[in-house]
Design goal:
The structure holds two protein chains of two kinds. By secondary structure, chain A is α+β, with helices and mostly antiparallel strands. Chain A contains 20 helices and six strands. The longest helix of chain A has 23 residues, at 17-39.
């Protein structure tokens, strides 16, 4: 396809029906997710109760309870407004602002589908997608294709991330996770079988790598949508991943024919018609956005580290449900002037969720070291902070995680220069005999 | 082929109906380990109550020694059950843990109580705060006077009455602990799906609890029972010693580690099913067993009393801590992963 034809194709005006369904679904999911977060007591448990936080930016301090609850109320109301199509720009802006404001408060809240929701919300805000109306004018095709691209990228990068020996040869982490479901009635024994994990691993990888194309090609759309429904229903049943299946099922509908919803209400499809191609500036902006979105998840290749182990480049990379990682972290705080040493387990200060996340994520381990240093500094002590940490990944035996004799209060560039994360050793073969000596 | 038939066929081929090893392990953990310890605890607490009554009726060196022995003996099953930090020890309405073993004891609060005119019968202790009741209070009253303890108990009968009241209160709580553990907690922990309280959703959730508590207990021995008294390099912190008046600090730690070993092996006499019976990797089974032995040996090598060793030979204590840390890594990381305990999902929906 030539550039001119591509521009013409992107400039086409297409039926807004699928975008309307997406907008309504997105708004409702956003509203329900906000209400659910509050109803489950997570505002208190995850945001207000912790005495320590891992903010993405230093100024993102936890606001008072009334402000926090207010943010969730805004999220819920804005979600309803998005669904209703009322003041779409304002609604999208309020939803996005309140959603991101909460996400910035603590890195341990990070979830891939929150990032996807942020991206989709930003697209609703910045493009005409949020204003799509059932009986309204056709929408520029590039708007639909941008959303399709965002959804497809999740699948494709998730699929690419599964092409590794842990996933394909050792069926990890699914073997570990499905073992935990062995007690389920009827299917428990089947789920716990090694062959099931292997079949699901390969099936999952093939699914991720192919389903966007199955959905886009008219002849395979029914099969593709059947797979989407089956896959996300199964994942949602097996694992507590909240709204993720709903977001992905909704997103998948964007890859169908833009008129697909009209068939369900016996409405005549609206055929595409030619339209003006995006302006030069618009095209350049769109190309830049697409390029960043496509390549950002690949940044770990530049660093050349094992992303599953070091987690450098893990976030914002659509590496979904890939790791079973656990660990143990303990800090040694040393005051060189007096040689006093304090030992501290982070479980004393952190909530179970924070502790669970930080003990396997190096940047959080360092963030907490910096927090400890600040605490001592406030009491007039100049300290160095070291960590004794072990972790195990996908069936491997535990090994040292962070180099124990490095002061973690050093700048990150200095730590990286000193290779502060020990290299991953051993294979994922949980039954093998290449275990590392302790 | 109908889907049901297909599932049935697949299940037959994959041996879906194979008996899971988990239910018998959970049953034995609840009974051979926890109930067994709690039953012994209740029995010995009653003996301790009788011994303190006898002491107050006839305060002599012999009856004092008998009361002290009874306290020491009561402490053993209680500390062995330390890893059972769930159920009625932690959950309301009982929440018996703090009532039985609030540590460190508030000396000031106990002395205030003795000096006051407040009644000190067992029922009265039931209305006291955690810092004025439980095993540490009995210990304080039976030991804190050192060589003058007997004289103190004789000169101030109210002091002895307080010891007897606190001991009877402990016996009462121990009895409640046992009965509450038997019903409803044993049911909750062996057949969670049938439990209307939904404390645990699945048997795997119950296993998670046990394995996590094994790791936590080892950490607690290492960091709290040994680490805190060891101090921060400026000298030992003897105030942080558990059971410091009776000098049972080390034995408390050893008993707590024994409790972990019992959960691993399936009871005191190792006749039941323990967590080790769930491990399919023989190398890991051997490793954890061996590390428990090593940690136990290192702990055994620490000379009594701990208060002196902390000052004279801190390196021996540190060696025990090192062994415990290696054991903790094996349980918390390797064993947990092997048993799928560390499923990386949490309440806040996980997809990362």
């Amino acid at each position: 396809m030539t550039l001119a034809r591509l521009c013409a194709r992107l400039g086409q005006r297409v039926d807004p029906a699928s975008l309307v369904v997406f907008r309504v679904g997105f708004g409702l999911i956003g509203a329900i997710a906000a209400v659910r977060f509050v109803a489950l007591g997570w505002v208190e448990a995850l945001l207000l109760s912790p005495t320590v936080h891992f903010p993405w930016v230093p100024w993102a301090a936890i606001p008072p309870a009334r402000v926090l609850y207010g943010l969730f109320a805004v999220q819920a109301l804005a979600g309803v407004a998005i669904a209703a199509g009322a003041r779409p720009r304002l609604a999208s802006g309020l939803w996005l602002g309140s959603f991101v404001a909460v996400e910035l408060l603590d890195k341990t809240l990070y979830l891939n589908h929150y990032v996807l929701c942020t991206l989709l919300g930003a697209t609703l805000l910045c493009t005409p997608a949020g204003s799509a109306r059932w009986r309204g004018p056709r929408v520029a095709a590039w708007v639909l294709w941008l959303l399709r691209f965002e959804i497809a990228l999740v699948y494709l990068w998730a699929g690419i991330a599964k092409v590794n020996s842990d996933w394909l040869l050792c069926a990890e982490p699914l073997t570990t996770w499905l073992q935990a479901r062995a007690g389920l009635p009827v299917l428990g024994g089947l789920l716990a079988h090694d062959a099931t994990a292997l079949a699901m691993s390969w099936g999952g990888a093939v699914y991720d790598l192919t389903v966007p194309f199955l959905l886009l090609w008219p002849r395979t759309r029914v099969i593709g949508m059947g797979l989407v429904l089956g896959f996300h229903a199964a994942v949602g049943w097996l694992f507590p991943i909240g709204i993720f299946p709903f977001v992905m099922i909704l997103g998948a509908t964007l890859l169908l024919d833009p008129s697909w919803p009209r068939r369900w209400v016996a409405d005549a499809p609206v055929p595409p018609e030619p339209g003006a191609a995006p302006s030069a500036l618009g095209s350049a902006t769109l190309a830049a956005v697409v390029l960043v979105l496509a390549l950002f998840p690949a940044r770990y290749l530049w660093w050349g580290t094992d992303v599953a182990w070091t987690e450098r480049g893990y976030r914002f990379g659509w590496r979904v449900l890939l790791n079973e990682k656990t660990g143990l972290v303990e800090y040694r705080i040393v005051e060189p002037a007096t040689e006093r040493t304090w030992r501290l387990s982070p479980s004393e200060q952190l909530t179970p969720l924070q502790h669970q996340r930080m003990r396997t994520e190096p940047d959080l381990i360092r963030d907490y070291a910096l927090h400890l240093a600040r605490e001592h500094e406030a009491e007039g002590r100049d300290v160095e902070v070291y960590v004794d940490s072990w972790a195990a990944l996908n069936g491997r035996r535990s090994q040292r995680f962070i180099v124990p004799d490095l002061d973690l209060t050093q700048p990150m560039t200095a730590l990286q220069a000193q290779r502060w994360i020990t290299p991953l050793q051993g294979s994922c073969d949980r039954w093998g005999d290449d275990r590392q000596p302790r | 082929m109908r889907p049901v038939c297909a599932v049935a066929l697949i299940c037959t081929a994959c041996n879906c109906g194979e008996d899971s090893p988990l239910p018998p392990v959970l049953t034995d953990l609840a009974t051979s380990v926890a109930t067994s310890h709690y039953a012994t605890f209740a029995e010995r607490a009653l003996t301790m109550s009788e011994a303190t009554d006898a002491l107050c009726a006839d305060p002599t060196a012999t009856t004092l020694e008998a009361a002290r022995q009874a306290w020491w003996s009561t402490r053993e099953p209680w500390k062995r059950a330390e890893l059972v930090k769930f159920g009625p020890t932690e959950e309301f309405p009982e929440r018996l843990g703090p009532k039985l073993d609030f540590w460190p004891v508030s000396e000031e609060a106990v002395e205030e109580l003795v000096a006051s005119t407040d009644p000190v019968a067992a029922a009265d202790f039931g209305r006291q705060g955690a810092s004025r009741r439980g095993l540490p209070v009995v210990e304080y009253l039976l030991w804190s006077g050192g060589e003058d303890t007997l004289a103190g108990l004789t000169a101030t009968p109210r002091r002895c009455d307080a010891a007897a009241g606190a001991a009877t209160d402990v016996a009462s709580s121990a009895s409640t602990l046992l009965t509450t553990w038997q019903t409803p907690w044993t049911g909750r922990l062996t057949a969670p799906a049938d439990d209307p309280s939904d404390t645990y959703d699945t048997e795997q959730d119950v296993l998670d609890e046990w394995v996590n508590r094994m790791a936590f207990t080892v950490e607690n021995i290492r960091l709290t029972k040994l680490g805190k008294p060891l101090g921060d390099g400026t000298g030992p912190q003897l105030d942080a010693l558990e059971s410091r008046f009776s000098g049972r600090s080390l034995q408390d730690a050893r008993d707590a580690l024994d409790g972990v070993a019992h959960a691993w092996r399936g009871g005191v006499d190792e006749a039941g099913n323990g967590v080790e019976d769930l491990v399919t990797d023989p190398a890991l089974t051997e490793e954890v067993s061996s590390l428990i032995e090593i940690a136990s040996t290192r702990l055994g090598e620490v000379p009594e009393p701990l208060s002196t060793t902390l000052t004279v030979e801190p390196e021996v204590v540190q060696r025990a801590q090192d062994a415990l840390r290696i054991l903790q890594v094996a349980i918390q990381v390797d064993l947990a992963q092997e048993l799928s305990v560390t499923v990386t999902f949490n309440d806040n929906d996980g997809d990362g």
